[in-house]
Amino acid sequence: MDIARPRQIMVVSELPKTRSGKIMRRLLRDVAEGRPVGDVTTLADSSVMTAINDKLSSGAND
Fold it and tell me: How many CB atoms lie within 10 A of CB 23?
């Protein structure tokens, strides 16, 4: 029996959230699948995506 498990786990200080507090899973999916990140204008803090992309490109898993 196969068990689903993540290929990589990354600890970040903050998740991309809208101004109303909802997590933008679409953006996380884009990053995880190597696609360009879409529209980030609805984020409360758009610098979060830059930090996540930087951490992913540096290969840090801490």
Answer: 11
- CA-based nearest residue to 43, from 12, 22, 57, 13: 22
- The pairs formed by 55-62 with CB atoms below 8 angstroms and a separation of 24 or more are 55/10, 55/12, 56/10, 56/31, 60/10, 61/8, 61/9, 61/10, 61/11, 62/11
Euclidean distance between CA atoms 57 and 39, whole angstroms:
20
Q: How many CB atoms lie within 10 A of CB 52?
A: 21
pLDDT in tens, 8-50: 888 888 999 999 999 999 998 888 888 888 888 889 998 898 8
pTM over 0.85: no
